[in-house]
Each structure stands twice: as structure tokens, then as C-alpha cells.
Amino acid sequence: MEKIECKNCSAIIDKELEFCSSCGDWLGLSLKDVESKDSSQTEKIERTKRAPEQLLNKPLSTYGATPMPSRKDVPGMRAVLFLTVLIPAIALASYLYNSTIAEEVIEETQIIQQSTTSTTTTTVKTTLEKQIPISCSASSSYSNGDGWSCENIYDRTPASWQDNSLACEDGWLEFNFAKDIYIEFIVFQNVEDTKSFKRNYKARDILITTNNSNFLLNKELENENTASQWIDINDTTSYLRIDILSAYPGEEVSGSQPFDECAIQEITFYGRG
Fold first, then answer.
1. Host domain of residue 53
2. CA–CA separation, 159 vs 125, rounded Å?
């Protein structure tokens, strides 16, 4: 058996020993270990020297390797495929939905505009304005050839209606409109010329009726001509009648005798519709 010298205590010991039998110091690798190491290195060198074409020339499963996963087995690939299909579908659905909503909004806007236009038109038609009768009649009219008919009452001129020298007794006036209208009020105007006003008879107590049997209005007028007199009606009708129940008598003016005629210069009708 081969002997070696301990480097620590210089004792002569067997080479196969790992520790010195004299001092106990470690001697390094044993001969068997060295030989085994040399054998492993030689085998490794021989495997490394194999030709590359001899390596992995068979499927990996032949060498016990785990097979490569398919696209279907990889979660990331499934997510990518899912998003690739889902995102365009969502975009298309959103576009179609928004298009439908836009069309509905446009239709609703048009309906609102039409409704607003209709409402505006209706409002214009119901604005308070002068209402002109289409005809009139009177208990009598003065007939001296100068024209004193009841049409003078709504012709917007200084011309007046005068009865046939009856001093307003049993006098009446009737007015007809083209259709039912809401008469809010009327404006009564005596003769504006001061001399004529004083010499003529003037209506005092009047009774106003319409084709509404429930409407009846008594009114006492003032004996003056400097201002118009407003009378509230607030009734829907196509017909209005004024009965003269009493009158202010005519007066002598600067030696001129009073007239026997009952005179009214203008009646203006204000209403809606």
C-alpha cells in the first residue's frame, strides 16, 4: 500500500486515508476520489465531443421532457383571442346603440319643435286685440241724408250713430261677430266735439247682454266726453246687445237749442280668438 507524508506532523501514513492517523489533520481527496473524479471528467469530455446532429434528433418527449403547450392551453393566448373578438363586438354594438339613440333624440327634438311651434301659433291667435263686428243693427237711425247708422260706431272715425230723434227712448244696438270670441272689455266713447256732445242726448244707464243666457251686465255711464269709459265683459260670444235704459238730456249751447237725437261716437271691442 502506498504511503504519504502528513504535511502537518510529517508522519508517514497510508495514502487512502482522508485524515492523518497521528495528528488528525485532513489530508485532502483520497485516491479513490481522485480516480473517480478523473473518470467523471473523462466521460463528460467524451459526451461533449459528440456531433451536434446527434443531439435532440428525436422529439422532446423521447427524452422525458414536458411537451410544449398549445395556444388553447395558454391562458394569455386565450385572453388575447377573447379580447380580439370582444373589443370589435363592443365597438360595433356601441356604434349601433348610439346611432339609434341619436335618431330617437332627433325625432323627439322635432316633435318638441313642432309642439313649440303649435303652442306659439295658438298663443298668437289668442292675443288680446280689437275685434270688429261683421254687422250691426239699431232701434232706429237718424235719416237726414248725412248717414248716422250704427256702422259709424266701429268705423274708427269721428262720425257717430244717432237715433231718429227719439231722445234715446227704447234705444238699443246689436253687434254680430263672425264666430264666438272671448270679449274681455269694450271701450265706450261719447261724441268728442264739445258743442255736439252737450246738445245731444247721451246714454246713461245701459244693459249689456250676449247670446249667453247667464250673462247680464248693468252699467251707468259718466256724462263726459274727455275720456273713454272701459266696461269689463269677460264672456265668450258672437253677439252683443246694448239696451239704453236712461239718458242724459241735451243742453242749450250759446243760444242753440238742444238736439232730440241720442248720439254715440264709438264703441271698441277688445277680445281674444
1. 3-63
2. 31
| Sign of the Cα pseudo-torsion (71, 75, 76, 78, in order) | positive
Q: Identify the helix (H) or strand (E) that includes residue 240.
A: strand 229-244
- Please check whether residues 256 and 178 belong to one and the same domain: yes
Assign residue 232 the CATH number of its domain.
2.60.120.260
Decide: residue 173, CB within 10 A, 0-12 exposed, 13-18 middle, 19+ buried. buried
Q: Which amino acid would we find at residue 243?
A: D
Provide the 10 A C-beta neighbour count for residue 242. Answer: 23
How much is the CA Rg of the chain, to the nearest whole Å? Answer: 63
**Are 144 and 232 found together in one domain?**
yes
Do 140 and 262 have their domain in common?
yes
Which three three-digit cell numbers place residue 259?
238736439
Buried b (16+ CB within 10 A) or exposed e, 128-145: eeebebeebebbbbbeee
Contact 233, 217 (CB under 8 A): yes
Kindly report, residue by residue over 36-55, the tens digit of the pLDDT. 555 555 555 455 445 455 55
Domain boundary among 63, 80, 101: 63
Q: Which of 47, 63, 79 is the last residue of a domain?
A: 63
Question: Can you list the residues of the chain whose pLDDT is less than 50?
Answer: 45, 48-49, 51, 119-124
pTM above threshold 0.70: no
